[in-house]
Amino acid sequence: MTEPLIEPQHIQCENLDQMDQVWTRPETLIDRKLHYCPGCGHSVAHRLIMETIDELNIQETTIGVAPVGCSVFAYHYMDIDMQEAAHGRATAVATGIKRVLPDRIVFTYQGDGDLAAIGTAETIHTINRGENIVIIFVNNGIYGMTGGQMAPTTLPGFVTSTSPNGRDTHTMGYPLKMAEMISVLPGAYYVTRQAVHSAKSVRKAKKATLKAFQYQMDGKGGTSFVEIVSNCPSGWKMTPVESNQYLDDEIFDFYTLGDIKLPPKE
Ligand SMILES: Cc1ncc(C[n+]2csc(CCOP(=O)(O)OP(=O)(O)O)c2C)c(N)n1
Ligand code: SF4
Ligand SMILES: [Mg+2]
Fold first, then answer.
1. Is 6 exposed, middle or buried (0-12, 13-18, 19+ CB in 10 A)?
2. Which comes out higher in pLDDT, residue 50 or 13?
3. Residues 6 or more apart from 173 whose CB is under 8 A from it?
4. Average pLDDT over residues 117-130
5. Nearest CA, atom 9, ligand 1
6. Region 7-27: what's the mean pLDDT?
7. Is 113 in the pocket of ligand 1 (CB under 6 A)?
8. pLDDT tens profile 178-211
9. Which of 3, 139, 147, 236 has a C-alpha 20 to 30 A away from that of 265?
């Protein structure tokens, strides 16, 4: 029998009633077994969004748009109104919803294949029109759902099932920095790049998500874009721990974390 990677922890909690509760499941995050692979950042990203919706008290007024990709079943976990979109079309669907129901808070949740490959045109034109929606972009540098093919965001040299010798920039081009690209559009109101691989990064990503939804509620500007650079342990052929280390060692040098565009000062 192979040894478990992480030994189970048996923690004795003798004075449980005297302890401060530091975490509870967000009310809007449905208590259901997730279909994601162990250690996948999608589940943490889901939690952040649902915490944000709880804290802003917008469960009844929020409509999410789910993509095609590993997060295609996002609506199984998010206890809000949700609409499924065809692959890449989430921001176009969100545009329609927001225009018909302008008092609703509308967001898309999309992977990098969905947003930065088949959906590039929809993404750019939605933001160029300054639609007052939030786009949550989970960039894990690969097509996770379909078996680990190269994405437009894959780093040079990275091995995937369609770049078995590593991404060769001469024949396969360079990785797209979507956040930087769209930040030059006048319709982009708030653009930030975050991560969810550590406690510190989760706290920062949460603040960014809160801001993005709050900006939409204030209705002063255009599109808010929150990129979450994440892992795909299965597609990357790494353990969850290795994949999080890889983010720190290799990925964040290219996909620098932090705010890229802030709303104009009043
Ligand atoms: C029109 C169309 N083309 C291709 C596919 C196949 N397909 C499904 S998901 C996907 C890519 C998913 O990758 P990503 O958006 O990065 O999400 P991840 O699974 O990595 O979270 C592709 C190419 C499809 N479902 N529909
Ligand atoms: S294939 Fe990758 S992105 Fe999809 S659930 Fe598994 S680890 Fe997450
Ligand atoms: Mg992906």
1. exposed
2. 50
3. 152
4. 98
5. 69
6. 72
7. yes
8. 999 999 999 999 999 999 999 999 999 999 999 9
9. 139
Closest ligand, as measured to the CA of 140: 3
Q: What is the pLDDT of residue 8?
A: 47
pLDDT tens by residue, 126-159: 999 999 999 999 999 999 999 999 999 999 999 9
Domain segments of the chain as ranges: 35-257
The contacts of residue 9 (CB under 8 Å, 6+ apart) are: none
Helix axes 199-218, 41-56, angle to 10 degrees: 40
Which segments within the chain are labelled E, that is strand? 62-66, 81-84, 105-111, 134-139, 142-143, 149-150, 188-195, 223-229, 258-261
H helix intervals, 74-230: 90-100, 112-113, 120-128, 169-172, 178-183, 199-218
Q: Class assignment of domain 35-257?
A: alpha beta
How remote is the CA of residue 209 from the centroid of ligand 2, in Å?
22
Pick the closest to residue 137 from 157, 151, 156, 155 (CA basis): 151
Instruction: Tell whether ligand 1 has an atom less than 6 A from the beta carbon of residue 136.
Output: no
